[in-house]
Amino acid sequence: MGFSLSPLAQQNFYRLEAFETIGSTNAVALERALAGDPGKLWIVSKQQESGRGRRGRAWATSHGNLAASLLLTGAFDLKAAATLGFVAGLALADALDAVCPSTVFSVGLDGAGNHGPTSAPLRVELKWPNDLLAGGAKLAGILLESTQLEANRFAIVIGIGVNVVAYPDDVPYPATSLARLGADCNAETLFLALSDAWQENSWVWNEGRGLAEIRKRWLARAAGLGSEVAVRVDGAVLRGIFETIDEDCRFVIRDSEGERIKIAAGDVHFGAVASARAE
Q1: Domain named BPL/LPL catalytic: which ranges (predicted)?
Q2: Backbone φ and ψ of 161, nearest 5°
Q3: In whole angstroms, what separates CA 215 from the centre of its chain?
Q4: Domains by residue range for the chain, with CATH
């Protein structure tokens, strides 16, 4: 089975370029934009060799994982376009709900305290600003990049990487994959569902006019809501309780003195142990 777009995506004039292996799907999407591509183009691959994450971090993937980037072009309001990462997170969560089993199996303690197979609901959570977690471990990441085009137009690239068959073990945070969680799903099947779910969530977003509904849906899946967090911002660490995201999708915490702090960009760590690691 190869990569393909859902009928809904095709009906709405999305296009697809698929690769077995690629350097970076985001880089290729930006190249297409600068060469005059009109947008609504998905670049996908089962292996990415020189991708990048937030803050320029390297992001390579094993063969069989999903690397997908969506190129959009137009006269965007960049403030609104910056919230497309939240749309992408919801779309990916919806796609995972559609194609993955409702339960995952692992070896652990059962209700009687005995070791053996146990099952638990697969709950995909959204971690601000751009990660998806399963069982508290990173399953996927999202990266937005942009470049200016002629005539006051912009290219927005939404990069999505999912650990389908493997996950990195050399990262300073817990990570997981769909295969480890017991999900019987491949990159092609997941992308098919993602291309469909993207269109549905993009309609809700409606060029930013539906952001209030996107925010509401995102908060319903938010990881760590109401818990202790530490956020690294420009070398400083801010601590408090994760209260909400505001109408602009900024991260809002309440510190020990009761002050609400709004954060536009930063690295979030959950819980007391994670807070210590943020130092």
Answers
A1: 5-206
A2: -120, 130
A3: 15
A4: 7-220 (3.30.930.10), 228-277 (2.30.30.100)
Q: What are the tens digits of pLDDT across the range 146-180?
A: 999 999 999 999 999 999 999 988 787 889 999 99
Q: How far apart are CA 87 and CA 95, in angstroms?
A: 12
* Chain-centroid distance, C-alpha 126: 8
The dihedral through the CA atoms of 40, 41, 45, 48 has a sign that is negative
Amino acid (one-letter) located at 123? R
The closest alpha carbon to 97, from 122, 72, 114, belongs to 122
- pTM for the whole structure: 0.90
Tokens 């990916």, residue? 92
Q: Of 277, 77, 62, which Cα lies nearest the Cα of 178? A: 62
Both tokens assigned to 130: 């751009």
The first and second tokens of residue 58, run together, are 């390297």
CB 205 within 8 A of CB 214: yes
